[in-house]
Amino acid sequence: MEFSASPIWFIALPMLAAFSSPLWVRWRVLDQLLLGIPLGLLLLALGLFATVQQAPLIETIVIAPPLGIHLHLDSAALLLVALFCFAVTLVAAFLWHGATETHLRGRQPFVLILLLLAGGNGLVLTGDLFNLYVFLEIAGISAYVLTAVRDDRPALAAGLKYLIIGSVAGVFFLLAVVLIYLQTGQLNMAAVAQAFAEIPPAMQGLIAVLALIGLGIKSELFPFNFWVPDVYRGSDPAITALFSGLLVKAFLFVLVHLAVLIWIDPEIARIWLMTLGALTLMVAELAALRQDEMRRMLAYSSLGQIGLILLAFGFLHESTAAGAFFHLISHTLAKLLLFLVAALLLRRVLSLHLDALTGAGRVYPLTVGLFVVGALCILGLPPLSGFMSKLWILQGFAAAQTFWPIALILVAALIEAGYYFRWIRVLYAPAAASAVTDSKTSKTAPESWATYAPLLLLVGLMLLLGIAPFVIEGALVDAARALLDRDLLIQSVLGVAAQ
Amino acid sequence: MSQRQRVPLRKRVRVKTLLLTLLSAWLLALFLTLLLGQARDWPTATVGDALLTRNAETASANAVTSVVVSYRGFDTLGEVTVLFLAATGIGLLFSAPRPRSELSAAESESTPAPPNEMMITGVRLLFPVLVLFGVYIVLHGHLSPGGGFQGGVVIATAFLLRMLADPNFRLDHVRLGWLEALSGSGFVLLGLIGLILTTTATFLGNFLPHPVASLGQLVSAGVIPLIYALVGVKVGAEVGAIFQDMREAA
After folding, report:
1. Candidates A12, A59, A62; nearest CB to B188
2. Residue B28 is part of which domain span?
3. Same domain? B142 vs B183
4. Going by C-beta distance under 8 Å and a sequence separation of 6 or more, which residues neighbour residue B11?
5. Are B232 and B155 in contact (CB under 8 A)?
6. Where are the alpha helices (DSSP H) in A126-265?
7. An example Gene Ontology cellular component term from the record (chain A) (predicted)?
8. Is the dihedral of CA A223, A224, A225, A226 positive or negative?
């Protein structure tokens, strides 16, 4: 017998806990497990950083690649897995004390949140294309049901919309996988990467377009992201925090990973990815200017940041990719904070509309203060991590003598400042805060400190990463190197097979 | 001026629908041209062929089963999870209490007619046969076509027929939940045992003895029939729970 710190645990443990949920209901440990399992996995991930730095961990399942399925835990995947486990831990800690959100307690939300984590982890870990599709379905279906979990009219409408558009995306991706198998006879990503050049060029283009549409819908890129604000508006803000912090990041990573691995000509991939990223960034930021509902505004802001991350990844250069990983982490921290603040506000006021929140900053100083911190982190103001991550990306572009993305990012930051300061100004407006105070007295008692603990932890992490980015610099540079080094990946996977 | 002319052209012809149809048709034509013109001949050395030649290792007479449960068992675990998620979602959304007004309206409209005698007698005869057939398909998954998914659905269908024939027949949700939980966690645990034992040291590894000599017998192929039986129980319980939820919601 041996106990190995295998990457399989990141998928098998949440699945095992989700399957055996009736047992946990009977023992009344649902809340404890929802917090404990991601926390345990987070500790496991942190413990693995040193090992993975030496060489990627490759976990063969039943039969060695290229024949079988394997999990590929390199620095890039490990960074994302740790981030996902952290996000779920934090949301679980937040939900534990949320007495008002009864629909997010109990067996079904427990199952759905854990399987969302398993799906996200599987997406970044798997080394097999069809297995990737299976995890895309797992993450997708748990997200559809989580959207509709509140079971009122807007939530059901959002869930139905998400279900339809997500299934269409799944079909597009599946068709790309089928064509790849028909053309190369392979499903393992490394083997496909080797064989892809032999496919006729027109067919290569067809496969790339199909995969791009499928993953573009899933990772919320510009021409395909019309559905996102409705879904973010309809679902619960605590769940939306997971969508923006976990799900999109997983799909975005898959898109970039496949583009690097399979697309041989980096020039073409660079043009496509950077164009999509730049379009997503500008369109979403401009749309966010006009939003009068907090969740829709945050949704558009999230789309803009996704575009920025893709723009930096799409340059396919180590310096910007490290910055992109940093911004990915920083954006997850900030959006978790902002959406959880929205959830807190929604426990007390009836509407998150701009007019209804006038003067809320004077009634709930701590909650709105946290919103301001999150907004400043997205904007990229100095002591917070958002500043450092944007600076890294800008430095990367400047070092490569490419200046148009720099101009674009700065313009986008100006627009962001425009709408976030509009919100902050309204939140602290001296106008008669009658609507806010009325709904406060009718709703609930003040929250305990335990509700704020996860939010304060997020602020602490933003400050830490903003002041001392060198604590994770090594991990980020390793992750960028692992993501972009195609030959190393192929060799490490198929080298194992040769033994 | 006649009535017909006064209606503007863009209202008589639905331009948006037409454009969408044309666009879809053009894309389909493009897709088919690419697919038919550019596709290479079927590659001869696919992963599937390689797995077929190695099938004897698993000692499972049905090569499809050794791919589904062993070589790509991880995908099967994922598919079982997808079904589990679908059942959970349907249970969550269909069994939630509806507002009073909708409920009473629905009840007054459809008082179901009692099943007729043919139905009752037919189901009484068919039910044991169907269950037995389902169990057979599940247990012989490693020997003949079929297996956990197919057999599980056959068993669930038998219970659906009982529901149709007997309005008072109910599947107990709590008991179904326990069946699902036991079979699902059993699948993951069998996989983890394979990971922990040093003889296999891989997730879903076949840690039970599976000599090639016993190929084609009921007790053969090691852990494969066990996993397929668990899949059968899980699929049967989930599909049954979906039927039950939909009947309660209707």
Report:
1. A12
2. 3-33
3. yes
4. none
5. yes
6. 129-147, 153-184, 189-195, 201-218, 228-234, 237-242, 248-262
7. plasma membrane
8. positive
Integer Cα distance of B229 and B238 in angstroms: 14
**CA nearest neighbour of A121 among A178, A177, A44, A63:** A44
Token pair 């059942």 is found at B87
- Chain B residues whose CB is inside 8 A of the A118 CB are 81
How far apart (Å, rounded) are the C-alpha atoms in residues B205 and B76? 14
Q: Which residues of B touch A60 (CB under 8 A)?
A: 202
Look at chain B and report how many structural domains it folds into. Answer: 2
Residues B85 and B163 in one domain: yes
Cis, bond preceding A66 (omega within 30 deg of 0): yes
Global confidence as pTM: 0.91
Q: Among residues A134, B231, B178, which one has the least CA distance to residue B223?
A: B231
**Which of B 142-201 lie inside 8 A of A, CB atoms?**
174, 177-178, 180-181, 184-185, 187-189, 191-192, 195-198, 201
Q: Which residues of chain A have pLDDT under 50?
A: 1, 440-442, 497-499
Residue A201's CB: how many other CB atoms inside 10 A? Answer: 9
**Cα→Cα distances A325→A276, A452, B177, Å:** 18, 27, 41
Give the end-to-end CA distance of chain A in Å, rounded to a whole number: 23
**pLDDT at residue B231 greater than cutoff 80:** yes
Mark yes or no for CB contact B203/A62 under 8 Å: yes
**Is residue B2 pLDDT above 60, yes or no?**
no
What pLDDT was estimated at residue B112? Answer: 67
Give the pLDDT confidence of B17-40 residue by residue, as tens digits: 888 899 889 988 888 887 777 666
Tell me whether residue B48 is in a domain: no
Per-residue buried b or exposed e for A455-477, using 16+ beta carbons within 10 Å of the residue's own CB: bebbbebbeebbeebeebeebbb
Same domain, B63 and B25: no
